[in-house]
Amino acid sequence: MISSKVSNLSKQTITSTIGFCACGFLLALACGNILAQSVPSLATPPPSGPNAQSFQGSVPKGDVSAQPIDLSLDDAIQRGLQTNLGILLSSTQITGARGEKLEQLQSLLPSIDFSAKETASQVDLPAEGLRIKGFPTIIGPFGYTDVRASMNWSLVNVQSLRNYLAARHNFAAAQLSAQDARDMVILTVGNAYLLVIADETQVDSVQAQVNTSKVSLDQAVDNHEAGTAPLLDELRARVDYQSLQQQLIAAQNSLEKDKLALARVIGLPLAQSFNLTDKAPYTPFDQLDASTLIEQAKRNRKDLAASVEQAAAASDQRKAATAARLPTLSTSADYGDIGTTLAHSHGTVDGSGTLSVPVFDEFALRGHAQQAQAQLDSAQEQLNDRQAQVEADVRDALLDIASAQKQVEVSRSSVDLSNEALKEAQERYANGVSDNLAVSQAQQSVAQAEDQYVASLYRHNVAKLSLARALGDGQEYKKYLGGK
Description:
Layout: E1 2-5, E2 12-18, H1 21-30, E3 69-71, H2 73-83, H3 85-106, E4 111-124, E5 138-156, H4 158-225, H5 231-266, E6 274-276, H6 290-300, H7 302-323, E7 328-339, E8 345-356, H8 362-430, H9 437-470, H10 477-481
Parallel strand pairs: 3-6
Antiparallel strand pairs: 1-2, 2-4, 4-5, 5-7, 7-8
Helix pairs in contact: 2-4, 3-4, 4-5, 4-7, 4-9, 6-8, 7-8, 8-9
């Protein structure tokens, strides 16, 4: 910085100050200290962490290929762990928490600065009120050079120490939340993948029903033209056929939309077509002990551990508010060379210690303490709620698995029975024993049974993924989808 002020009736001064970081580092090493230049706090909000909606988005990665790509469940999950928005926001949250920890750490360490100053002055004595007969009215120009390193250190400050400990807990909480986000991505991607599999199965099922209905329609048309069946049979068969065609169009649309949703959560370009290579497995679970699984979840769930760290951070912040009433001890010192030139200079040193005791700042101290206590109470209540939620997640997943498993078994039996009934109805109609009303009703039963089977199989696999998430064991999702 160079400042200049010129006047004929006043002092003329030119001062230039130049900071040399490299020289300051050398001086700090010579003094046996670590250079730490103090940086003012930035009034920027911390990076926001992921929410439930964040895991439905991603940052697209890769080029669009003209040919469809094969996509397994493992491939989809690995893509999601790299590009899902929830993962990316968790990483930025870690960076912000690390920055806060470093900032609080600096308040416990010495701050060392270096400056080099060259000063030139010329003084007008009458302008300063000095009029001495026979004495020159103008003095100068003259100048000096000052090269100096200064240090400031808060030796005893309990509030700063507590703030640093709170920042460490917040950083640990951010790391744990990032690990929990990986389980959330696995659950989200797995759910989207299984939904597309269910849609494909549904499309195949409806397509098969359309083909069967077309055979029945052709048979009714032939019988009507031959005069062996009334027009009502043909009309009924045609309505059934067109109704199934509409269901097929709706199922195909749902499939394409759910494939877009899968591409969104794994960062695949939306224009990229792909084929799923895995199919929905079905392996029944053995009887599981809820109490054992709940204890396992409490040990493994990273979101619960993050809540513990957040509560510990709030506790340290509350203690920091109390420590604001305590005295602080700080010291400052500077050492450098000053003289007309560096070759004609002499070392000078200055040091001081300061004991600061708050005397009257009661309202601010009370307000800060109340705010910190409110944050602590809120963090503790959220921790208690999280503990209860962990248990609820495990119990919900176990109930869903047991229910969906029974539904799969019942619906699979219903599919077999309805197909057998349809075959019997078709044979009776072909032999002229009955009209095609029984065929129409049997086709509706088959469609309903197929829908229930596909839905129950999807719910069963999603419930197993939810159990892996509830236990904090999402990385081992294959073990759960394949049975246990």
